[in-house]
Fold this sequence. Notes:
Blueprint: H1 11-42, E1 50-57, E2 67-69, H2 72-82, E3 117-119, H3 124-131, E4 136-143, H4 151-155, H5 171-180, H6 190-198, E5 209-211, E6 226-230, E7 233-234, H7 248-259, H8 265-288, H9 301-314, H10 316-319, E8 323-330, H11 339-364, E9 370-375, E10 395-401, E11 408-410, E12 440-441, H12 442-453, H13 460-463, E13 473-474, E14 477-478
Parallel strand pairs: 1-8, 1-9, 4-11, 4-12, 5-6, 5-8
Antiparallel strand pairs: 2-3, 4-10, 6-7, 9-10, 13-14
Amino acid sequence: MYLIDPKAHTRRAFLRRSGQLAMAGSALPMALNLALMGDAAAQAAGDDYKALVCVFLYGGNDHANTVVTYDDASYNAYSAIRGGGPGQTAGGIALSKASLAATLLNPTTTLPEGRQYALHPSMSQLATLFNTDAKLAVQLNVGPLVVPLTRAQFTNGNRKLYPLPPSLFSHNDQQSIWQSSSPEGSTIGWGGNMGDLMLGQNTNSLLTCIGVGGNTVFLSGDSALAYGVGVGGPTRTSLSASSVYGSSTVKAALAEMVREPRSHAMEGEYTKITKRAVDAEGTVTAAIGSNFPASAFPSVGLGKQLAMVARLIRGRAAIGAKRQVFFVAMGRYDMHDDLISRHPPLLQLLSDSLAAFYRQMALLGVADKVTAFTASEFGRTLASNGDGSDHGWGGHQFVLGGAVKGKQFYGTSPVVSITSDPRLAGYEGQVGQGRLIPSTSVDQYAATLATWFGVPATSLEEVVPNLRNFGGSANGIDYPKNVGFLA
């Protein structure tokens, strides 16, 4: 109840949704088209291109072995908690300090208390993008929050004063919370909310929000629709084949039927939807073209997804896009066991795929117009369960692109402890086993991305409604509405 608040529903949103509901009974697509017309009139077309690319890590990434604390005091605490060996050697689920030297991150501005971090040894390409190219930033300890919280407030039973994100530590619900600010069952995501506000900038509004990583609530808006594309291109309709049932005559007849006006309302709208799908398929197929250097990307999973996103961005003129939101994903991050052997290949694929994508954006001359960012339903426990880690809360994420103020850490460095944070009285930093209380909310993270994307300050709460609860200081921590990692 704390995530869906009537105060977050602005006049613009009310009018848009009312218009849709009034016609949804007989002609939903018509209502959507009218909503698009309203947005087009309200949003002046820009003369530039921008894209956001969400890279979702399903399963809950182990942040402590991804962005690894490196300074002696913090590393020694990390090693002791995770079962490391003597003399800063590997053991349990702790990496050796020596293995981290090549991926040590050297920020432009040093962190308080001499804190240092390194990336997992398999993430050398992202380390280069941070240290040498200065195009990668690390957002520390970000996760779902309704309001800023301390450990005492977390354990307090007064949920009216201290509301929590619902169903913490649950995969499905936290995936939905991250993507939509609401638990499982939500139909509107903050990527789609941004798409709603930008539909008028695109000639073909259907191709504003595009998913290459499967179905996701993240891309669904009130008016913006999530258009799905596979790693090989758009989903083919029967009318795109050379024949239907082996007959070119049948295909021609079907094509004619699709384009015929119908007097029956439902038949007419069905025809419009079918025609729109066929037209979109043709547009995307032409836009992605051929002669693309696919070999520059890893040939599996996330690499193939990001290669398709790059092809779509290359074809943005053919699509008629000025603003686009993309979604890609990779899974298998739920590592309750065998973390040491299963984690490195995933992190290397993530690192290599993101690096290849950034390099391609640079070759296309749009590196400063495309921002990629990671997300995962939760971080994990700092404490080992013997061979892995369990479900957590806050975690570290990456932001990559030419507009990123890189070679920097953003947010507050969490204490390396499974008991408390002695620096900040009352905050304590974690809620048991090193499950981090986020010191940056998903709403702040999203609002920073949305601001760069072009969402006006007055519309940010339409994108992430809990943003109204942030913007000041609490618990000795700053909670700015704009975290600052984008120019």
